[in-house]
Amino acid sequence: MKKSFPVELVYQVFSLLIAFILVHALYVTVIRPQANSFLQEEAANMQADPDYVPQRSFFVVIKDYEQETCLILMLWAFAILGFKGRSTYSQQKMLEQDMLRLPDDLPIGPEDTRDLLTRLRSMPASLQESLLPRALLTAIERFGATRNVQNVSTAARDICESEGERMESELAIIRYIAWAIPSVGFIGTVRGIGDALGQAHRAVEGDISGVTASLGVAFNSTFIALVISIVLMFFIQQLQLMQERLVLDSERYIDHWFIRRLQT
């Protein structure tokens, strides 16, 4: 049996590479230079005016390596979500077509299965791998072999359920990314707190700048990671909802256009 080219795997690898290049280039050219410039300006203002109130900058909040990693993972997850969402949408559009191309009032008998199989198999190979054509092919083949409507209904439902389980399992990589992003943020928290504790002796001497900077790393990394995770989980739930609707609508399509017209 000829193995298909792993398009999705190659897409995921290249999307991760592109996300890393784009985000790292943005950090090197814009974010970290702006953050360093802002911090130097704030330090100069504080030395010139003891009553000066330090300001906050978005560039400072996202300048550390943990936030960079979170943004890379976010772009990677969005790329995978876009790939799967596009595939699901294209399959959903197939439900608007009459794939059997038969008159509405014409019953379907066992002698019609050969012609229906020929029509479906004449579709492009890429479309035949979609849920609806595969379920229809299985149902037609089962009807031609058994001439039993109940067996046909069971076979079509099994295909739809197995496809739903497959799409659910393929979301594992995205769920892993959604779990990894807060974990990276917590790593930044641990690193920041550890650095702050390492500079406790300077705080005792009256210099708390190092401690506050390290605590800023801790809190900023967690803040950015949690915000990204919340946004990402919303889109994951939307994709899962699209996939569940696709499975249910495919079952209804097969029941309406094929099973209810069967005549033994």
Could you explain how this protein is built, in words?
The protein has 264 residues and is mainly alpha-helical. It has one domain. It is built from ten helices and no strands. Helix 3 runs antiparallel to helix 8, helix 3 runs parallel beside helix 10 and helix 6 packs parallel to helix 10. The longest helix has 49 residues. The model has no long low-confidence stretch (mean pLDDT 86).
Annotation keywords:
264 residues; mainly alpha; 10 helices
Task: Kindly summarize this structure in a few lines.
With 264 residues, the protein is an all-alpha fold.
Question: Secondary-structure map with pairings?
Answer:
Layout: H1 7-48, H2 58-61, H3 65-94, H4 113-121, H5 125-128, H6 131-146, H7 149-170, H8 172-198, H9 200-204, H10 209-257
Helix pairs in contact: 1-3, 3-8, 3-10, 4-6, 6-7, 6-10, 7-10, 8-10
Q: How can the largest sheet be summarized? A: none
* Shape field: rod-shaped
**Euclidean distance between termini CA atoms:** 34 Å
Overall strand count: 0
User: What's the alpha carbon Rg, rounded to whole Å?
Assistant: 28 Å
Domain tally: 1
Low-confidence stretches: none
Give the class from helix and strand content and strand pairing: mainly alpha
Helical fraction? over 70%
**Residue fraction in strands:** under 5%
How do the SSEs run, as a string of H and E? Answer: HHHHHHHHHH
User: Helix count, per DSSP?
Assistant: 10
Mean pLDDT: 86
